[in-house]
Amino acid sequence: MAPAFTNLMEKIDSRILRERVLIFVTLLALIFLLWNFLVQARFDRERKTLQSQQTQIATEKKGLESQVTALTMAMTMANDPVIVKQNEINALNAVITEIESRLSGLSQGLISAEQLPKVLEEILRRTASVELLQVRTLAATELQLDAEKSAENNTRGTGVYKHGVLIRVAGSYTQLIQLMKELENLEWKFYWESLNYTVKQYPNAEIEIRVFTLSSEEGLLGV
User: In the chain, where are the structural domains located?
Assistant: First the structure.
């Protein structure tokens, strides 16, 4: 045993019991502090690192399980013909709702398809200064959605039909202008599609007018 250590032990043995106990307790405390600082702290850091890694791995595992569940449900729904058909029905119902909304706005205050040619012809016949040359109904045509939506829903029409009437009348410029004003002042509303003005022999001229109204029925107008 080293002389220095032997001298230290002899000095401790020469102390009274209370002092020796105090020295022993102090040595134990010093050893504990050194252990805690040099060894235990490193163990604690490694333990916290492992716990953090375990938590991260568990979170990633749970996320992957959720993705697998979602993908499985999506594949099941994609392969289920009932769900596929229901999705198609829902898409068509959405289109129908949009069309009905548009029709409601467009047809507000419009004259009915059945009344349009009769009312126009009656107005023209009452206007003695203007010569009625022709009143002809045009074939009903179905309104189309926007080009992109029409391509997506090409298997189903809008269900809204445009009913047009062609009118040809002759008269002077003043007479024809007066006729136009009377048509515009009618209590019924309709859409103007085109107007062609041709001077035959001054001051006489002819105008060809195309007007139309909207309806949910395809039937021909009654002229």
Answer: 1-79, 115-215
pLDDT single digits (tens) 1-47: 566 657 666 666 676 777 767 877 787 777 777 776 766 666 667 66
Q: Is the sign of the CA dihedral 64, 65, 67, 72 positive or negative?
A: positive
73-92 confidence digits (pLDDT tens)? 777 766 667 677 777 777 77
User: DSSP states of the chain as a string?
Assistant: --HHHHHHHHHHHTS-HHHHHHHHHHHHHHHHHHHIIIIIHHHHHHHHHHHHHHHHHHHHHHHHHHHHHHHHHHHHHHH-HHHHHHHHHHHHHHHHHHHHHHHHHHTTTBPPTTHHHHHHHHHHHH-TTSEEEEEEE---EE----HHHHHHTTTS----EEEEEEEEEEEEHHHHHHHHHHHHT-SSB-EEEEEEEEEEETTEEEEEEEEEEEES--PPP--
| Closest CA relative to residue 191, chosen from 95, 116, 86 | 116
Residue pair 157/151 in contact (Cβ under 8 Å)? The answer is no
Give the tokens for residue 145: 């959605």
Q: Domain 115-215 belongs to what topology?
A: Alpha-Beta Plaits (3.30.70)
- Distance between CA atoms of residues 197 and 73, nearest Å: 65
